[in-house]
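Appendix B. Chain record.
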Amino acid sequence: MKAPRFAAVVLAGGLSTRMKEFKPLLPVGKATITDHAISLFKNINVNIFSFVGYRGDDIIYG
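Structure tokens predicted for this chain:
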């Protein structure tokens, strides 16, 4: 397999004060929005870097 030529940065650390929900863990179909974004980049062989902040452990360890 050819080495990835591009990289993606997934920002996953925001609490929405208007929505009262933690945006990175909002459901999209059967996955979260963060999982969905990461899987899209994995499918096209892109290096992925994710930055977490607020509730980072919830995102990393699901």
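Further analysis of this model is presented in Appendix C.
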